[in-house]
């Protein structure tokens, strides 16, 4: 059985391998990690990478490798949950405000403008400060930031589709607004939102790490990549590079994984990209062509 053309690209192979690596780290974290991710050992403070501690230890003596592995659970949990909530809320909301144009639609768009006008980290810090520095609160904050993105994407697609002939034909056949929206418009408007899911997960990983880096995300001793980078940043000037380097590389790998998968998903869902281009330099033969 042949794989789809999009899955045979090098980007797809790399993205799927990186995703598989993260899934293995999530599922088998207790087996992979040689130490507890939250158990401090003052006698092992700031030890460089060695056979005993593959990624070294931080200032509290916690094993960096174990914390990087367990942090995969935290970062991906926050990112996937926040994007899933934003998708579940933003898609139907964008469908409604795109189909029903009026004061309510305009009010929703102005609310989105208000949310997106704030710098992301400033708004994130304010919401986390009000709601508390807990894992689920960070996920809710990120969901609030991502809802306008999905709603705008769906609304833009619905606005371009609602005047198409197939919608007029559905109306003439007696279809209700609900039937038109969910059976005709939504399936044809979903492609940009589906692609945005993968991209948004990568953005959520960066935002989660950024909020924790500035002290507005999860708290110690929870293993989280941004928090680990923040903890090690103070010792980098002293030559202690391993505390920040390895969680930073984990962020790069995770974001790169979902960026590649988003590109592959776009190619897989777009039928025009799935067609093989015609060979250059060959004229198509036409009927009646003479030598």
From TrEMBL:
Membrane topology of this protein: Multi-pass membrane protein
Sequence similarity: Belongs to the binding-protein-dependent transport system permease family.
InterPro entries recorded: BP-dependent_transpt_permease, MetI-like, MetI-like_sf, OppC_N
Compartments where found: Cell membrane
Domain ABC transmembrane type-1: 72-262
Organism (species): Pseudoxanthobacter soli DSM 19599
Cellular-component GO terms for this entry: plasma membrane
The keyword Ion transport is annotated on this UniProt entry: no
Transmembrane segment boundaries: 12-32, 76-99, 111-129, 135-154, 193-216, 236-261
GO biological process, one term: protein transport
The protein, known as: Peptide/nickel transport system permease protein
Keyword set, alphabetical order: Cell membrane, Membrane, Peptide transport, Protein transport, Transmembrane, Transmembrane helix, Transport
Coarse class of the protein's main subcellular location: membrane
Record PROSITE patterns: ABC_TM1
């Amino acid at each position: 059985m042949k794989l789809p053309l999009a899955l045979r690209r090098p980007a797809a192979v790399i993205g799927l391998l990186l995703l598989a690596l993260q899934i293995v780290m999530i599922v088998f974290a207790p087996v992979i990690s040689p130490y507890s991710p939250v158990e401090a050992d003052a006698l092992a403070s700031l030890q460089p990478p060695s056979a005993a501690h593959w990624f070294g230890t931080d200032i509290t003596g916690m094993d960096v490798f174990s914390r990087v592995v367990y942090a995969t659970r935290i970062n991906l949990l926050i990112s996937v949950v926040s994007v899933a909530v934003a998708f579940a809320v933003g898609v139907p909301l964008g469908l409604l405000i795109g189909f029903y144009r009026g004061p309510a639609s305009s009010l929703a768009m102005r609310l989105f403008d208000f949310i997106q006008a704030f710098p992301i980290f400033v708004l994130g810090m304010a919401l986390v400060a009000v709601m508390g520095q807990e894992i689920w609160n960070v996920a809710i904050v990120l969901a609030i930031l991502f809802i306008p993105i999905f709603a705008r994407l769906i609304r833009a697609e619905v606005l371009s589709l609602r005047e198409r002939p197939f919608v007029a034909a559905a109306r003439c056949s007696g279809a209700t607004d609900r039937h038109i929206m969910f059976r005709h418009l939504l399936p044809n408007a979903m492609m940009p939102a589906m692609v945005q899911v993968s991209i948004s997960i990568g953005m959520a990983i960066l935002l989660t790490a950024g909020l924790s880096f500035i002290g507005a995300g999860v708290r110690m001793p929870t293993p989280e990549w941004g928090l680990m980078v923040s903890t090690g940043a103070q010792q980098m000037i002293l030559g202690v590079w391993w505390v920040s380097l390895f969680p930073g590389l984990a962020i790069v790998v995770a974001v790169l994984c979902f960026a590649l998968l988003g590109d592959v998903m776009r190619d897989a869902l777009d039928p025009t990209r799935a067609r093989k281009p015609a060979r250059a330099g060959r004229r198509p033969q036409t009927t009646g062509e003479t030598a």
